[in-house]
Amino acid sequence: YGSIGLPGYLGGKPVEDPELKKKKLNAELANGRLAMMAIIGMFFQDGLTGSAWGDWANYVDSPLRAFESELGVQAPVGFWDPLGFSSGGDAASFRRRRYVELKHGRVAMLACLGYITPEYYRFDGYLSPSLGLKFSDVPTGFAAFSKVPGSGWAQMVAFAGTVELFQYVDDPTRPPGDFENAGLLGVPNGFLRLSDPEAKKKKLSAEIANGRLAMMAIMGMFFQDGLTGSAWGDWSLYTDSPLRAFENETGVQAPLGFWDPLGFTKDGDVESFKRRREVEIKNGRVAMFATMGYITPEYFKF
What we know:
About 45% of the residues lie in helices and about 0% in strands.
């Protein structure tokens, strides 16, 4: 078979240049992965709206309509609930999940700042004068657990518990995460408050979006810290990675490198890897044709 899969009897000529061939094979894998995602999206949109380009407003039976005007419903995905947690339309369950989402997002934003800030600034003086422990002696990330004394952890837990139990208590009569005694940016008993409803809605939507990003970011920092010894660690330091057996294979591309979040290749089995790669390429090629089959008739028909 030659370029783009044309058989020899139809004039297909193989790519002789090894670097060009590698580039084209990488492009095929990347395009196939994108096409597999695209065709599934087309199938869903076609099945629910009657067209692969259908207006989601036509999906009148969607249980998500009960929450499509809530905060956090933002372009481009709209109300995004891929696991169907809100499919029952239960307002009480939605409120509880939104409350939890806000809380986790706020904690994650503070946690991300806790990783980033010490890289640029640390307090002068001592964290524990009795132990002779300076702030500059405390490393960033997981390594700090072994440095901060037990009394320090007790103070932090007590402070967080006080805030949780007495300062910011959920009020069922108010929106989730909205506390009467919290001012702008959540400052306790803060006197600065937003009076403009549009500005408030914009900032609350931004908080949800930033909290979602922070939850993803802090998990990435945890993994990178745990595996390399630093939240900004070089992945080459993770010498025990079972993925190293395949890190030079075709399809290992920036920015993710060898991406196997479910750990299918963690056993390092070459035969299993080859079988999955063959299936991936085959499904990708079919998906590229299927995607073209959806798109082409919109512009040309025999």
